[in-house]
Every structure is written in structure tokens, then in C-alpha cells.
Amino acid sequence: MKRIVCLGGGPAGLYSAILFKKALPHARVEVYERNRPDDTFGWGVVFSDKTMAGFRDADPDSHDAIVGSFHHWDDIDVHFKGRLIRSGGHGFCGIARKRLLNIFQERAAALGVGQTFQHEVGAAEQFADADLIVAADGVNSLQRTRHAEIFKPNIDVRKCRFIWLGTEQKFPAFTFAFEKTEHGWFQIHAYQFSAGLSTVIVETREETWKAHGLDRFSPDESIAFCEALFGQYLGGHRLMSNARHLRGSAWLNFNRVLCERWHHGNLVLIGDAAHTAHFGIGSGTKLAMEDAMSLVSNVARAEDVGAGLERYRAERNLEALKLQSAARNRMEWFENVARYTHLEPEQFAYSLLTASQRIGHANLRLRDPKYVAGVERDLARRNGIEEARPPMFLPLRLGDLELVNRVVVSPMAQYSAEAGMPADWHLMHYGARAVGGAGLVVTEMTCVAADARITPGCTGLWNEAQRDGWKRIVEFVHGHSPAKIALQLGHAGRKGSTQLGWQEMDRPLPAGNWPLLSASALAYLPGVSQTPQAMDAGDFALVTAQFVRAAELGAAAGFDLLELHMAHGYLLASFLSPLTNLRRDAYGGPIANRLKFPLEVIGAVRAVWPEGKPVSVRISASDWAPGGLDEADLIAMARAFKEAGVALISVSSGQTVPDQRPVYGRMWQTPFADLIRNLVDVPTMAVGNIFEADHVNTIVGAGRADLCAIARPHLSDAAWTLHAAAGERYAAQWWPKPYLPGKAQLEHQVERAALLQGAV
Ligand SMILES: Cc1cc2nc3c(=O)[nH]c(=O)nc-3n(C[C@H](O)[C@H](O)[C@H](O)COP(=O)(O)OP(=O)(O)OC[C@H]3O[C@@H](n4cnc5c(N)ncnc54)[C@H](O)[C@@H]3O)c2cc1C
Ligand SMILES: Cc1cc2nc3c(=O)[nH]c(=O)nc-3n(C[C@H](O)[C@H](O)[C@H](O)COP(=O)(O)O)c2cc1C
């Protein structure tokens, strides 16, 4: 390559120019920047200690200069409702954005990179003879916009407004502070980045910002407003803006940018032009610089530049998506801060610290054991117990039901029944999991009638023999463990009469099918599944009576909790989702109507279910398909269930329609449980890829859910909780007496492993 042109003199453009020049000393490398060298928006940027190691390897000179200009700190302070919560061990460094750019400018100059300032670049075609054009022109990238049909950007304008200010106040830690006005909450993200200066980003919801008239305020008036609101944290210092020379409002919306493609011919997007990460996790500059490293290593010496650009995209896309996902969780936490302000300061701060779902209880404990010990003491106190313990081992009361811990064996169909009869397999399966330490074991979806089954192997509860089969299991659980056992009742609806889970799931039986019912006459797999009959008045009465009878039998069997299955596209769920409920009568249309039949069933069942014993429902919080349930539906559903006396909402998602497009990941459905619990104030159970003790501790500790249901891990390890307790060194964990020697050995092994790790 002979000529490389970088459009934009921010971190992405300058750092790639430096690295290209180092890799290709004989090439002509140029940077074009519209501003002057010392103009810059914003004040400081922050890196984590970990990030810096990579930069040392890429360019020791600029790394050393950056480190020499760092302001370093370890603590995060959260000010909320007059309290200060401090946690340590976070290891951050701050640097002035201007200083960072000056370091890069000097380094680039020393290497012989050409730098042209005050040069507004229009069409990139003017650099026709360049071998590579690096579009590092930031979040509003002109080059990306000009070729939007190629890059296919997806730009999400987020719900908050923010203003990036400076101050001479020296914050002792990375500081978050929250203040409420008559129109809503404002927060600051503040940190010191040089000997005498700190950054203060003030952020609030768009509607709060507008209600205060801030959209009409001049920058000076905005600053005066922020000073008045956050004065108590500023130690008498003023706030300052350096954005006056920039166009537009001083208050910005964060734009989340994703692009389908990153390169077009020899033009390549990098940094904010390609993707953005919310400043809540402070990683935009890191992303931009790491893009530069990857671009140069894949392209500088590539025989085929196009293939090199594609390698760069593949390498960085994954990393960017991971960071964007963590940043999105944190960003949404800040957007919805009002949801969490009912929490006490300790839990509020813990919820903030763990909001990205990347840092959990164990990591915080590693960073600051004293802080985590305080969190555990506070949680214990609020749960009315003396001894602090990891959050997963806190008891929970729901009505008259007391659970010894927060781990639940999630309902899992065993497809092992004949004529709906729970038999030896079920006794072994549920019994082993109850003695395995979970606080609650939930049965598989147990069907209220023979033709309500999903498959011929599903358990049922419509006759006395089945009642007695279940009673044997319930009595085993109660007699041999402190666990409680819940009955999940359901009706398969249009997903019924299908093959066993390990055969062709969701496909009709080859023979012996039974007729199906649903909210509307829509087949699950068009052209494959049976078309159900849309329920009429007679069906409503029949199905309600079936649920009532099953609940009576369940009560007689001694179950502790009754869960109604209203998720995954089965009968009751088919009423809730607008994708499966196309009815034009009182049971279809707006969510209030779609809720009518599920609420009738809850009412009828509640009337026969023992009073002190709780009823829960399992829902699909999202259909993951266009036109499906939205957030307003979800909130309406949760409110209606709470009103109907439901004690717990188990929050799953999807499986409503076959063409769903869920976004999987660790703890991926937990944000829905969090939304319902903290907005609607009803206990929730989270589920979905929760597979480590640390996940449970963090979810419960942060108040994102009250219980965690764990499904597949319980298939490979019936004693999941016993193992987790040993790993967490929770010695007070109950074990079955015959297994106590196993407890002693396991705890010994855990100690030994910890000692060895410490020695390494
Ligand atoms: C409030 C706020 C706080 C942030 N805090 C942090 C933080 O703490 N840590 C962190 O790592 N990141 C932070 N970021 C993000 C960070 O600023 C960006 O992610 C980072 O600057 C991206 O670098 P870039 O080079 O891609 O884009 P930019 O830094 O935006 O640089 C693009 C450059 O291109 C120039 N340009 C644009 N168009 C043209 C044109 N047509 N002709 C010539 N020049 C042009 C611009 O003037 C600019 O200098 C924050 C961002 C915001 C908004
Ligand atoms: C084999 C199997 C059977 C399942 N059967 C049911 C069921 O009967 N009722 C139900 O509500 N969910 C059922 N599920 C869903 C799980 O309860 C759980 O929501 C899902 O597996 C996600 O949790 P996980 O990531 O911990 O596995 C089943 C899951 C599996 C793997």
C-alpha cells in the first residue's frame, strides 16, 4: 500500500494512522480533520486498567505518554437519597480527551503522518488514488451516510439527553449521583481526569428534559440549571462547557449505531462511524482504538485488501456486539432509573454496579470483599435473618409458603408418562432434584385433560389415580428434603397432539391425533400442524372446569404452589399474544380483552386453591416477532395478574410462533423479570441461561428477580444447589444425612482448589 487516508482526527483516525505508518514506514499516511488540533468536544475519557495492556503492545510510545498523563482511581461512589455507597477495586484511569488527541497528534507527526486540520472532507472520491480510505469520522459519519445503502446503518436514538461538562472539583472516585426534580430523575457520571479537572456528564430522560424547558435553554442557562441541581457534589466549583463552538444543542441523545457492512471497495468504517457503545461503560474510545489495531494487523500487509477488510470486520464485529450488549444493559438501567429508585441505597448501588450483566457478585467480591460483605449483611437484615450469606441462600416467603433459598428447578417436560400418569421416573426425577438442594421444584407442564396434552408422554391431572401418583412424589419431597414442590398446570392449545421432545418436536403425531383448541383457528406450523378450533362459549366453560378440577386434585395431592402455564404459545398464552389471538369478540383485540380468559381461569382456580398457598403464572414476556407482545402489553399483563392475586410471575419468553428471532445470551430473559418486579412491584422468577451460582447471587442481590429457575443445568446435575453451596462456601447448606460424607469431601476439595489457585 502506498497511500492511506484517514478521514477524521479522533482516536480512531489518529491511532490507525500511527499504526499504519509504523507497519508501512514508506507509505504516505494522512489524516484530515475538520477541527483545529486543540478543539474538542467533551473533556475526559476513561479506560480500565485491563484495556491499557493491549495498547502497550501496539505502540509503546503513545502508551507511555498516555500513562504519564493518567489520573488513576479505584473506587466507585454512588450518591443516592442522601447516602454514599462506596465500592473499591475497580481500577480506572482517566485522561483529558484533548491531551489524548495531542499525544496522538505528536506521535503521528514524529512518525511522519501528514495531518491537515480545519479541512472539512466531503466525498471520499477526491482521494481516488489512495489504496485505503479509513472513515473515522465519528458517530454522524458522512461517509457512512453517503453509502447508507451499502453499509445499512441501524441507528437507534435513545431515550435520554446528556450534556458533557467539566469542573475543577476533584472527585475522589468515579462518581454517580442521582437527584429528583418535580419532573423526574437526573444523574451525573463524574470522574477526575487530570490534576485539576473532572468530567461531569449530566443525563436525564428526554421527557424530563423537555418538561424543564431545557430544550429552549442556552448552554449557560443549562449549566446554571445543572449547577443548582448538583451543587452539593461540586464543592463550590463551577461547571464549564467546551461545546459552544460545536453546532446544535449542547444536550445530545446517544445514538446506538450498528452497521451491516463495514467496508465498500477501499473505504472502511472504524470507531464510532461503525458502531457506538454508550458511555455508561466508558468504552467508546477503547473500541475505536482496538478497531484501529485490528484494521492495521489485518490489512497493512494483506495481499488481498478486500479479504483483509473482511477479516477485520469479522474480528471486530463480535467484540463490538459483546460490548454493545453490556453497554445496552447499563444504558437501559440509566434510562429507567426511576424504576429502581424504590430500592434502598445499598441495593440501588449494587443494581447499578451489576447493570451491564458483565460484572457480578463474585467479581465484585474479588474487587472489594468488604463491600460485598456489607451488601450480604444488608440483604440478610432486610430478609429478617441474622447471618449474612450469598443472596441465593436467602429464604423467601410467598403467602404462607416459605422457601429455604432462591433456586428453583424449572419445569421440564419428561415425556415419560403413560395416560398422564406420573410414575417411577417422575418420583426419581423430582425426588433427586429436591434432595439436590433447590428451594422449589416445579413439575413439568401437567395437563388438565387428555386432549390438553402436548404429547402422549406428558403428565396429567384429571383423575384420582394421577392425583395419587403425584401425592407419592409430593410426600417424598416433603419427607426427605426442605424443598417445596409446585404443580405447573397447562393446556397445550394449538401446540398439542405432537411428538415427544426427542422425536420431531412440535410436529403432529403420525397417528392417533386428537382435536385442538386455541384462541383462533391458526395452525402453529402452517401446512404441517393441525388447525385448532377457535374456542366458543362451551369450550370456555369446559376448559375452565378442567383447570378447576386439576387444581382441586393438586391441592389434595399436597402441592405447595400452583403455577398456571401461560407461556410458550400454549392455550392460555394463545389468548395473550396478538399474533395468535385474532378474535373479534370480547376475548380479542386490546390487551384488556386478551387477558379476559386467562384472568377467568386464575379467578376460578384461586377460588378452589387453599387460601394461604400461592398461585403463580408463567408468561412469555416477548414473542420475539414483529406484531407480537410489546412492553405496554407486558406491563398491563403483570398489573392484571397482580390484581388477580397472583403471588409470583415466572418470566420466560417466546415460542409463540415458529418464526421467532430471540436474542440469546447469558441471563437473557432476566431484563423482563427485572422490569416487571421493579415497575409493577410483584415478585418475579427469572429464567433462561442462568447457569452459575454467581448469576443467581447477582440477580437476587440486585433485586432483578426474587427467584431464579434453572432448567437444563438440573438435567446434568440434580444436586446443582449442593454443588453451588460448596463452591460458595455456604457451609450451612442442608444436605441429606446419608450424603453428608460427600459434603465434607466436596467442601475440602473446594478449599484445596482455592489454596492452589492462591499459590499460582
Ligand atoms: C458524553 C460522552 C462521554 C464519553 N465518555 C467516554 C469515555 O469515558 N471513555 C471512552 O472510551 N469513550 C467515551 N466516549 C465515546 C468516545 O468519545 C467515542 O467513542 C470516541 O471518541 C470514538 O472515536 P472516533 O475517533 O471513532 O470518533 P470521534 O472521536 O468522534 O472522532 C471523529 C472525528 O472526525 C471528525 N470529522 C467528522 N466529520 C468530518 C468531516 N466531514 N471532515 C473532517 N473531519 C471530520 C470530527 O471532528 C472528529 O474529530 C464518550 C462519548 C460521549 C458522547
Ligand atoms: C427438556 C425441557 C422441557 C421443558 N418443559 C417445560 C415445561 O414443561 N414447562 C415450562 O414452562 N417450560 C419448560 N421448559 C423450559 C424451561 O423451564 C426453561 O424455561 C428453559 O429451558 C430455559 O432455562 P435454561 O436456560 O435454564 O434451560 C422446558 C425446557 C427443557 C430443556
Give me the secondary-structure category: alpha/beta
What percent of the residues sit in helical stretches (DSSP H or I)?
25-40%
Identify the overall geometry: globular
User: Mind describing the biggest β-sheet?
Assistant: 8 strands, mixed
* Low-confidence sequence ranges: none
The average pLDDT score comes to 94
Beta-strand share of residues:
15-25%
How far the N terminus sits from the C terminus, by CA atoms, comes to: 46 Å
Report Rg: 29 Å
How would you describe this protein?
- The strands form six sheets. Strands 5, 6, 10, 11, 12, 13, 14 and 15 form an eight-stranded mixed beta sheet that branches. Strands 20-21-23-26-27-28-29-30 form an eight-stranded parallel beta barrel, surrounded by seven helices. A six-stranded mixed beta sheet has the order 8-2-1-9-17-16, with helices on one face.
- The chain is α/β, with parallel strands linked by helices and 760 residues long.
- The model has no long low-confidence stretch (mean pLDDT 94).
- It is built from 26 helices and 30 strands.
- The protein binds flavin-adenine dinucleotide (FAD) and flavin mononucleotide.
